[in-house]
Amino acid sequence: MNKPKAISIVIPVYNELRNVARLLDRISVIFESHDIDFELIFVDDKSTDGTYEYLERFANSKHVTLLLKEGKPGKSYSLLEGFAKARHETLGMIDADLQYPPEVIPSMLAKLATYDIVVANRKTYKGSILRRFMSRSFRTFFGRMLFGISTDVQSGLKIFKREVAQTVQFSPSSGWAFDLEFLHRAREAGYKITDVPITFEERKNGYSNVKILKTIYDIGTNAIALRLKKISPQVIKPESGTMIGAGVGYKKKKYVTHTTLPHNMSAMQTVILSQKICITLVLALVVYGLVTSPLTTGIITIAILSTIYFIDVLFNLYIILKSLY
Questions:
Q1: What sections of the chain are H helices per DSSP?
Q2: Tens digit of pLDDT for each residue in 204-256?
Q3: Cα gap 313→56, rounded to integer Å
Q4: Sheet holding 117-125: strands in order across?
């Protein structure tokens, strides 16, 4: 399978006037040199430094879409608004502060031939010592120890197939709670994740929007709540106008059933709650009978099983006779 030749990249921005021009240039150069069609979706979170006004110059061009934030403030909600407007079948996200290198995206696209999500893994970190410590601590404790995810769970540069975004749908609990839940739900739905190593650069222009203590609290509490949350089977949508590819993702596996029937009507759920309760009560009744009156209980049990067996024989005979016609 060849790598995708078109991608929609969502870029959340808030007061990044001094960075967006350079980011536009770098992305344009790298994609045009690799003959990749691209769409950059800037979602402005009500900037006050002229970022939105600057981007308006490019809003009607072939490669740039500009959105003014409509929902809650925060990066998570900007990403969801941007993905909803994307045109291409391959989606991506990158921060606007130039700390993530857009030049690595073509090599990430190549990996989509065999994976569903590719994450830029911050192997070399040139940011502040505090940010570096926070990032690596979160990756180790929450990513690896709590969720068993080895990749960089808070990386701001990812690319993935549209199908993943359509399947993994949720409402983030805060403005910084998108990344870990997205990766966790995607893995639970059976999607394959890999990464590419990058150098995370130091911010050269502007100021970080990360409020350290609040961000630690938001990300940490969300991670713990997510670990305690049960992830139900997630619906995999079919190809447009067909049932091809439809199914569900559950417990790290994809079940492509080519049907949009609810998962509780499939063999994924073989015994429902009421049946479990009924079976438990019957077993408890049999055990009680064997303790108090074993002979009578044995006779009744054998009689019931024999009746069920006889009904099954008659049913099979009926099926055979019907098939002869």
A1: 17-33, 51-55, 75-85, 105-111, 129-138, 162-167, 179-188, 212-228, 273-292, 294-324
A2: 887 776 666 677 777 788 888 888 888 888 888 888 778 888 888 888 888 88
A3: 76
A4: 64-68, 37-44, 6-13, 90-93, 158-161, 117-125, 193-200
**pTM of this prediction?**
0.79
Task: Compute the C-alpha angle 208/209/214, nearest 5°.
Answer: 120
In angstroms, how far is CA 49 from the centroid of its own chain?
33
Distance from C-alpha of 171 to C-alpha of 169, rounded to nearest angstrom: 7
CA–CA gap between residue 169 and residue 178 (Å, rounded): 11
Structure tokens at 51: 């970022």
**According to the model, what pLDDT value does residue 46 have?**
94
Eight-class DSSP state of 261? -
Contacts of 105 (CB under 8 A, 6+ apart): 7, 9, 27, 30, 31, 92, 94, 157, 159
3-state DSSP assignment of residue 61: coil
Name the β-bridge partners of 2: none
- Greatest Cα pair distance, the chain, in angstroms, is 89
Q: Cα-Cα-Cα-Cα dihedral of 211, 215, 217, 220, to 10°?
A: -160
Nearest to 189 by CA among 163, 223, 159, 171: 163
Tell me how far the alpha carbon of residue 270 is from its chain's centroid: 26
Burial of 100 (0-12, 13-18, 19+ CB in 10 A): buried
As beta bridge partners, residue 7 has 38
Q: From residue 256, give the alpha-carbon distance in Å to each of 65, 87, 101.
A: 34, 25, 36
For 242-261, the pLDDT digits (tens) are: 888 888 888 888 888 888 77
Phi-psi region of 277 (alpha: psi -120 to 50; beta: other; left: phi over 0): alpha
Residue 1 has pLDDT above 60, yes or no: no
